[in-house]
């Protein structure tokens, strides 16, 4: 079991993969763990916890979550 309170690239990768799986994200390449860094770790964990608590999502909720993930992406 991962300790998600610790900032690590493994935890970021795990959370992103779990979010993508739960939301059934079609464009998998659009969300990659490498797009995120430690600066936004707490925000990413908040999104992860929110997604894992719910069983279903409306299209509007899914769009909002994906947009929020986009906002957390590190600058290129």
Descriptive labels:
about 80 residues, 3 helices, about 55% helix
SSE blueprint and pairings:
Layout: H1 9-23, H2 41-53, H3 59-72
Helix pairs in contact: 1-2, 2-3
What's the gist of this structure?
The chain has 76 residues and is mainly alpha-helical. It is 55% helix and 0% strand. It has helices at residues 9-23, 41-53, 59-72.
Number of helices: 3
Helix-and-strand structural type: mainly alpha
What number is the mean pLDDT?
86
Q: Globular, elongated, flat, extended or rod-shaped: what is the shape? A: globular
Task: Describe the main β-sheet briefly.
Answer: none
**What is the percent of helical residues?**
55-70%
Low-confidence parts, pLDDT < 50 over ≥5 residues? none
Distance between the termini: 32 Å
Share of β-strand residues: under 5%
Description:
With 76 residues, the chain is mainly α. Helix content is 55%, strand content 0%. Helix 2 runs antiparallel to helix 3. The mean pLDDT is 86.
């Amino acid at each position: 079991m991962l300790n998600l309170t610790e900032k690590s690239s493994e935890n970021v990768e795990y959370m992103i993969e779990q979010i993508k799986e739960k939301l059934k994200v079609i464009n998998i390449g659009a969300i990659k763990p490498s797009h995120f860094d430690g600066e936004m770790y707490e925000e990413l964990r908040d999104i992860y916890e929110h997604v894992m608590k719910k069983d279903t999502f409306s299209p509007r909720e899914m769009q909002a979550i994906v947009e929020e993930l986009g906002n957390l992406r590190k600058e290129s």
